[in-house]
Every structure is written in structure tokens, then in C-alpha cells.
Amino acid sequence: MLEAESGRGRPAGVPHHTGEPDEEVRGQRPPAERGDMLLVLASLCLLAGESGATGETVDFSQKTSNWTDQSNLTAAGTQNFSGEALNPENVTLNGTVPEPRSFSGHFNFSALAGVRSFVREQEAENRIMGGQEAWAHSWPWQVSLRLASTPACGGAVVSPLWVVSAAHCFRRSGGTRVFLGTRTGSSPRLLWLSFCRYSKASVWTVLAGKHDLDNLLESGQQLVGVSSIISHHDYNFRTKSGDVALLRLQQPLVFNQFVRPIDLWMSPLPVSKRCTVTGWGSTQENGPRMHRLQEVNVTVLPSETCNRYYSGRIRHNMFCAGKDQGGVDACQGDSGGPLSCFTGIRHELAGLVSWGIGCGRAKRPGVYTRVQQYADWMSDTMNAHSVESADNLLAEEDPCGKQQSSGCDRAPGLAEVLLSDDGKVSVGNVSESCPFLWPWQVSLQSNGRHYCSGVLIHRRWVLTARHCSVRAKEDVVVLGVHDVHFLSSQSVVVDEVFNPPLDAGFPPRSDLSLLRLSVAARIGPNVSPVCVPEEDEEPDHSWSCVTAGWGAVKAAEDISPDRLHHTRLTLVNETGCKEEWGDFVGDSHICCHPAGSTSCLGDAGAPLFCQKRGTYFLFGMASWGSWRCDAQKPAVLTKVPDFCGWIHQVTQNY
Question: Which residues are catalytic?
């Protein structure tokens, strides 16, 4: 990690030599040398402080009474700090607020804003230098802003599509000198580096619903891209005035126990008010960052005291918080992170981590952006973009069946079942697909493990095989995923499962389930539905058909079961299929090459989608076939067009 000899306005540990030694803009990103980015982790230093036995930070003994039921990802039953229960029927994201009395009231989500959540199954925390590890997901508006894949700054959720942070996180600068070594080290080496353009939205992502940064499969997390970054027009990196920025997200966040917005503190901020600063970071100056979210209480100091400590450089749009004797502070890292103050009912956002000198030093408190000064600017900016987005949404239908363009050339080959001289069966021409090539393919998971495939047919509906036995309120649909061991931006709980009327025969003739998602999928480059054909649509050999899935495949080549694989399949007509399976095959079945069976390709519920004139239609869901990947036995799938009427009826009525 880069550590500074001295400097002002530096990234975490990176100096910028323009004034008083050791002054820092909290968490500025690192520079680049010859195009190679040196990513220095931004961190929040939560130093020794009081124990959290105030109203602002809940004591452990109080937390058990505030647990919420994790089985249903809503705000139902959440209590605020006064003990007043939130009526789940009154918690709406799109309801009408009669007369907005707060910043969040303008955007119709005030019922959730600033309400903390205490999720079950949290291990006991250890105290950290007088501060402490936060109760998991208890600050649900806290987000980690990631530059490429590295945590770089903090931020706060203020609406489903907006995050507020510090403008200096996205500043473009010229060259700067960087010293390698510690403040007390000897003979630091000098390098000349230049900053990249960090205001480019495409290099940033927002990680919400996060507690443990090292847990890639953490429940409740949401990873969303950034579509635009709007820094305040009056931001001055030398004076630090106007240090606020809004990030518009590519898709809206889903509000639940893990992700919620926070309202702005709009009244005068009382002197000596105790508030809580949160973030991931070191517990001492220049120390390593923490992986789990930390919290510590700080006290709002008088403006005259702060100006005395900082020689008159505190503007009206800033304030200080900490202790005169030091010991509690936000440090280099997680700039833009929230300073949350308790109103007696809920928390509100009073400040953003901006700058300071050192970490927890006496008479050098942390300096925060006074957010209420920018409420009108934030509201105007968000409203202007919202009107534009609403017009686009009304004019736009979700396109279906369009394969994502990709630069890779791993087109699926035509499957064949091979038999070696020693009798070993394998499937030829199965290959790993290009990432997100099939944006309708979803992974059905239980306890973080894939067990079946499904297909997105509408932003609120997924179709899969009935024999997958999906459990409502428990199992999760993971969208936009290629490797099931890696983080996906969308994981949605199954709200309800619908099955066609049960037939008495075996094998089943109606092996389908419709899954209603608890929240609508966010349609984008990696997630979009496949088309459902009409009842009279019959595929023939002029169609090109493909199947895809995860699982242990009997492929001739080595293929990871965790990555999506695919292959082309030829169709087998009803006469040829019945020659092998007899009357087990009915009118509601469609048959294909034997390689399409689960025993060959390894995934239950795998779809068969066929393309004509550039559009893919869902014709089958894998149902049954040979248990040993027999080269003579066609795979049997449920014929989706035969259930088109049932699909339309269910999706329109619920």
C-alpha cells in the first residue's frame, strides 16, 4: 500500500504537495503509471471512541428485539428506535405521498428512508479500537463504490436509481508526486504518476446490501453499474467546497431488508449532536482496511471551534465531527460515506466524509460535506433525469429473444454422442458459452447452490421444469450469471410457484412451473426475456435450436460445471421418437437429439430455444430421457407452445 511522506488532497496514502503537511481528501483514488492502474484501497479509519451506548448506535442488548424475518425480503415488521412498528401494508415504493414534507417524500419512498434493519443470524462482533463492527446490514443505505473491481469510496442510497457520494472521488487531476514508504520510514522512493479520468461512469459500479466485502456470495447484495456521474458545479478540489456528487445507476436497486434509502437531515444540525459514521476501512492511521462494515460515534463540533483548528478554512457547506482530544474519526478511504444522525424515529443523512488531517488526531476532527445545503440541487438533478427516464420507459417494450452481441467466437457446435472403444460415453461439440450470450438463462439456487435452470419469459416471470420442485419464499432466481460461483447483479427470491393441472400419467406430460419473482428483473445488456411461441407454432429443420445449462456434462472436452455451456441440437420428429419411447411420448412433448437429456448435459430444467430470422423462441424444457446418456434414445422435453394459453392466463391474472 502506498503511504505518504506528506501532502494535501491525496488519495488514500498518496500525497499532493500543495500546502499543509498531512492534510488529506478522504479516500481519493490512486494514480496510474504508464497506463497500469495502481489501485490503492480507499478505507475508512474508525478509531477509538465511545461504546455506542447512545441512541445513535444501538447496543447489542437492544438488537435482538429489532430482528426482522429474513424469509420474506420486505420491510415488514421492521421497528424503528422508538419501538414504533412499521406497518408492512404502508411500506410502498411507488405509493402516493399526499404532501411531501421531506427530501424522500418527493420520490415516494419515505416509509423506508433511514429505517435500520437487523437481520437474523449475525455472529457476535468484536469491538474495534473503541468503535465496533456494525450489525450486519444494519446500515442498509451504505454502499461501496468500486473502481473497476476495487473498493474505492463510500456512498449512500437516496433513491432506487441514485447514490450520493463525494465529488473528489471522481476528480480528474494532472500529475502528482508519490512517495513510497511510511511517514517515519527512511529514504522514500519518489515516483511521478498521473491520475486517470475517474469521472468516467463505465469504470464504476455500486455494491449495495453489503456487509462483508470478502464474501462474494453474501445474501442480499446487489451489484449495479453506473450510467452517469454528476458532480456539483461548484466543487473546488483546493478548498473542498461543493464536495458532493450524484451517481445515477443503470438499473434501480431493489429495496428490502438489505438495501434501503436514507432521507436528508433538513433542520439545523445541533452542536454536540452525536451521529454515526460507517464504512469499511482501517482501525488506525495508515493501517489495513477492514473487510466488514465498521461504525463509530462522532460528535458535531461548533463551527468556531472547527475553524480555529483549521485556520478559518471551514465553509458554510462543511462541518466538523469528532472529539477535541481525537480518537474518533473517519480517515483516508470510503470518502463520500454517510454520517447518519438519529432523529428519534429514524436516521437521516447529515454529512459525507470529505477531508481532514490525519486520523483521529487531537484538534484535527473530520470534516464533512453538509448535505442539506445541496438538497435543492439533488432534487432538481434527480427530477430532471427521472422525467427523461419515465418517457423512455413508457415508449419502450421489453424486446424478447434477441441474442446479446459478443466479441467472442464460441458459437455452439452440433452435438453428438460418442462411444469410445472401452464403452465410455461422451458428448462432442459441447463448449462453454460466451458470457451473457443467452441473457434469458437463469440459475435456480437454494442456499447459494445451483440445482436447476430456468428461462426468463417476462421481467416478472420465469419458466422451469416442475420436477425441479422450486420452493416459494426460499429459493432464489439468479439472473445475468455466467459462472454460478461469482457475484451476479440480480438475485431475486421466488414469490410464488404455479403449476399446470396435474396429469395422472407417468412420465409427466405437463412438466412445467411458472415462477413469479418477488421483484421485477432489471432488463439490460445481460438480462432479457426469450420469446414464447404461439400454440400453433411448430419448429422444423429450418430452425436452429440450442440448449444451455450448468452442471457436470459428459463432454468430450474438459468443461467447468460452474460455467454456462451450450450446444446445438437437432430435432427428432414424433414418429422417430415413439419408435424408441413408445406411448410414453405424447402430443405435449417435443423430442431432440439424445445429447439434450439431463444425463448427457447435466442440468435439470435446461431449455431448448430455437432461432429463426434473428429471434429465439422457447420451444422446450428438459423433462426426461435416458438415465445413462444412451445414443439411441432421444431426449424428451415439455412442448412449451402447447401451454401458451396457460402461461398467458397465469401471467395476466397475477
Answer: 168, 243, 335
